User: Fold this.
Amino acid sequence: MTDQSIQTLSHVYPIGSHVDERGHLLIGGCDAVELAAQFGTPAYIVAEDDLRARARAYVGGLSALYDDCDVLFASKAFPCTAVYRVLAEEGLSCDVASGGELALALRGGFDPARVYLHGNAKSLDEMRFALESGVGHIVLDSLHDVERLEAVAAELGVTQEVLIRVTPDVSGETHAAISTGQANSKFGFGLADAPEAIDRIAESERLRLVGLHCHIGSQLLALEPFTRAVAALAALGDFDVYNFGGGLGVAYQQTQEPPSIADYVTTLVGAAKAAVGPGKRLLIEPGRSLVANSTVTLYTVETVKRNVSTWVAVDGGMSDNLRPMLYGSKYEVAIASRMSGFDPARQPNYELCQLAGKHCESGDVIARDVLLDDPQPGEIVVTPATGAYGYAMSNNYNGVPRAPVVFCKDGNARVVVRRETYDDLSSRDVE
Ligand code: LLP
Assistant:
């Protein structure tokens, strides 16, 4: 293979992805068409090196700029054991939003002392599980949350370090469903209510308040709202720990140029140094920007139908990627064996297509109005940037078994989550 025969792909694809001399897509050195043949479709294909590179950009970037700091993996974005394991190996801490995510994080090798439990409706059982596991910090979200955790800590005879979540009345530009910093939010204490919560916990014999947390929203493509959130938190008093949440947006399409991890970290640390000064402990908890671009989803085209539109129907859809249906998110689509632009000799025949899923509703369209070059049944299509909240929100609608997760590195592929079977679909049915 000569250098000219290898085409590097846009920043939407995992770092290290290529198009080979035949026009095939390579992820982590593995041919996507061969992966589809070997593991079936749909499948989530993860470039392990990409995952590690972004983890290192976060950990290295933050620790170069601020002495006492930590990066927490917001594990809701991609909660499978192999991802937890890689990010634990890379030295991150972990944010969990439920007892289930806590169980997965522990299985994935996270030290419980480095786990932070979030949630606006934690159950008493989840609190007991967290305290019995030795979870380092719990992020409190309401006065009932304070009262209930205090009772559980008393019952177990322990003292627990906590942060409180503040809603700083700062919102960035994003879909309403994933905006969380506005005053009218189900999350956290408003700026006016936070002082009462701070005083309340100060009196507690079982809870020790170490700091404040905020998370203003997700898929944020501008940095300025983060700076405002830092200032709002700092104005609430002097604490040891400040956790500024996650939220950095990613490129789902080539035309999107989100801030880099380095720019984001620099801005945040600059704002923190100005607002809270040095000598604090600074935490961030990225999810999407750690994992989204590490992964592509492979599908097989089943049928092509032309009526008012051209419907290219594949073997997955809203069971493996709910994001287009929930948030109107847009994805790029390509044919994995004929990546665009690789063969100048071939006359392409691009057509505006609707990439449809296989599910029984009209809203099940993975990508609308995408240009595809004469897609044929049996061909493999790829949607890049599906690592965040794809697997996480996958489901069995229409009895579709959930897709496997395959890690690729240096030309070697391994299944880290197997495909569900038809037996799995009824494995919890007791009648
Ligand atoms: N911290 C907290 C407390 C969060 O609630 C979240 C995300 C994060 C950190 C991580 O945010 P990220 O860095 O991933 O933006 N299902 C939606 C996203 C929901 C985000 C929920 N919270 C989607 O697919 O876009």
Residues 265 and 310 are 43 Å apart (CA to CA). Residues 48-65 form the longest helix (18 residues). The mean pLDDT is 95. Residues 74, 76-77, 95, 118, 178, 215, 218-219, 245-248, 285-289, 323, 327, 389 surround LLP (CB under 6 Å).
